[in-house]
Amino acid sequence: MADAVFNWYKNAGTAEPGTKRSETTLQAKKHLSSMGWVFWYAQKNGRQELRYQSPQGKVYYTLKAACKGYIDGTSGAEGGGGGGMAVAVAADLEPKKPLKRKSLTQENPAFPKSLPFKSLQPPKRRKKLRKQENQAKTRVIKRASIRIREDLVPNSSHRNPRTVLSWLIDNNAVSILGKVYYRNKAGNPLMRGRITRTGIQCDCCFRVFALTAFEAHAGSTNHRPAANIILDDGSGRSLSDCRRQVHDSMMTIPTSAKKDDSNPHGSDDVCSACCDGGELICCDRCPSAFHVNCVGLKEVPDGDWFCPSCCCGICCIGTVTDDDNFLACQQCECKFHIGCLKLKESNELAGKNNWFCSHSCENIFSGLRNLTGKPIPVGTNLTWTLLKSKASSNADGYTDCPDGLDSCAENHSKLNIALDVMHECFEPSKDSYTGRDLVEAVIFSKGSKLKRLNFKGFYIAVLEENDDLVSVATVRVHGDIVAEMSLVATRFSHRRRGMCRALVDELEKNLAKLGVQKLILPAVPPAVDTWVNGFGFSHMTSDERSKLLQYNLLDFQGSIMCQKPLKTEL
């Protein structure tokens, strides 16, 4: 069959007399596949194009170039000339054993069969698996892991209070012990004080107040302390102005400095379900890749195969066509064929830009938005707040703030403080492929072309004591079926005071009000007993986990998935 490669290259893909061009093409691909070549799809200009990779790792963009590379390789092995083809023919007599391709067996209805598109290779030989064959490739398939810090980093800023003032001091926007005053509506000072990391120290009584408490101490009921506390340095800047200054400096990032998270091979290098590397089956529509057993399959399927996220939630079929044929739910991110939605009479929402697959998803979406940014008292001097990154980068590398600059800057400052709390409690964890900080990506709801790194649906729940942010949890709601709480952290100085319980209890209560049925989390082994015995969670079985594989869940190496049913009020 090696002559099929030679003939295809010599005739530029035209068929020999008595044979069809498609048969000649398939014969050439069949031989390349049997000799260890790997084929996959890559995205280019909105289209999917086939790539050909030799056993030595070199990638070719056309079948003609691949055939030439094969011919040159075999010729080079024998010193060139016609002898190379003789060796290739001899090799074809005892080819490498291809992976067996038996009939597709579906163990899980969540992973349906694909549309019967014509395969580009013979069904028994189609090579859909990505193998890492050398160190240069295996180094990028390490599973993401996260480790708890056992103690504070010596001489670090983690020992400082986590307040907005502390954040402004650390970012050189204000000076410690800098003079400030609270102004009335006429702009005149009502009360003077000095900036500390924990609050404003009043000049008259020398007590330290949180920002809202200093406003009340000044006799004001405006409930806008940051906008009315002014630096007494002649600049006329308020604390809100200082927050915007830091926010703008952080968010003005040149487009050239932004890292592209797309994979040059067209598909991911780790399994989207378990985040491990190895031998993976690639989705024919998106960059996601999976272990065969992680998606409920016994064998690699013949023909095109689509991951659960790329299949319609009604007919359970995927296609290689563009996104114009799909609508994605704004809340759970499940996709549906427009045609399937039109056939479903009960669905009245199809065709809208901000579309939801169900009324429950629409209610959850609006409920979360109504909760965002509004502090809820949960105890003496304790407030619980739900946050979400509001700024989105535009084409120039700057950001747009839909709720106004003040609101965006305040939200951004608290998210940065929440990130500091996470970094205090967890050692740095970077994705092995993109190199970006996973915790930061979650806190700021960063999106990605890779589904396992797409965190745009995350909200951040924070607990504050007198403006000092003491506990943080990340949460993503996948409709009314399940919500995930991937990361939870409480500062060392506030542990064993019930802060984490206050944070999680309020989160569970608000999720239950929205009708969410279950809360899950990936627990590190040392914390499993605490979550099970102290918070009412239980271990999730593999069967229970398989029912959620259509959702993009964040998991870490060595973690144990736990679950807890919520008492819904809907």
TrEMBL record:
One CC-aspect GO term: nucleus
* Residue stretches in coiled coil: none
| Primary location | nucleus
Name any Gene Ontology BP term: regulation of transcription by RNA polymerase II
Record's keyword annotation contains Zinc-finger: yes
**Where is this protein found?**
Nucleus
Q: Where is the N-acetyltransferase domain?
A: 405-554
A GO term for molecular function: acyltransferase activity, transferring groups other than amino-acyl groups
Region of interest called Disordered, as start-end residue ranges on this chain? 98-136
Pfam families in alphabetical order: DUF7028, IDM1_C, PHD, TDBD
Q: Which InterPro entries match?
A: Acyl_CoA_acyltransferase, DUF7028, GNAT_dom, IDM1_C, PHF12, TDBD, Znf_FYVE_PHD, Znf_PHD
The record places domain PHD-type at: 268-313
Keyword terms, alphabetized: Metal-binding, Nucleus, Zinc, Zinc-finger
Q: What is the name listed in the Swiss-Prot or TrEMBL entry for this protein?
A: PHD-type domain-containing protein
